[in-house]
Amino acid sequence: MSEAATTRRSRITPEREAELYGAVLDLLREVGYDALTMDAVAARTRSSKATLYRQWGGKAELVVRAMRSQKSGGIAGIDTGTLRGDLHAIVGREDDCTMERNAALMRALAMAVHMNDDLRQAFKELLVEPEMEEFRRMIRRAVDRGEISPGNPALDYMVHMLVGAFATRTLIDDLPPTREFLTSYIDAVVLPALGVPLH
Predict the structure, then answer these.
(1) Cβ atoms within 10 Å of 102's Cβ, excluding its own
(2) pLDDT by residue (tens digit) across 177-197?
(3) Which of 80, 114, 116, 161 is close enough to 85 for a disulfide, judged by CB 3.0 to 4.6 Å?
(4) Contact, 36 vs 59, CB < 8 A?
């Protein structure tokens, strides 16, 4: 984050920030990204629009930071000693209810990300790239431990597999993603593709 952004964001308390993010996510679920306005956020949170723009610069950054605030910590601290343990631990960070709510948020954003360059850029910079870097570290550890061959072609698709399962669960099965579903998917699809033995 740039120094200007750090300065811009330092004038608000963590409690107030959490309250604002909660309101943004509620609005996103209610009306979707395109119909969500800074006026509506200001009204919902009893803020001035000028304050919102000063703190976040615009709707895209505000929405993506609100999304990021829902993540149960990064995956940086997860290191169980095995790739299977690490992936199961990632799934175990959120309960099924939270996972379902996050899936609904992703659906609310999916089309908007394709239609809005500023949102897509914020999404990549603030959510996708940091997560991808942590996944790359996790994979490097697994390669270093000898669990995965560094030349395995499935390595480039691990995140696609995981995100795909999460995103398409409702579309294909008309069910929300759950811990049980994602854990069994990891064992049945992701780990075999990577050549990781389950025992």
Answers:
(1) 19
(2) 999 999 999 999 999 999 998
(3) 80
(4) yes
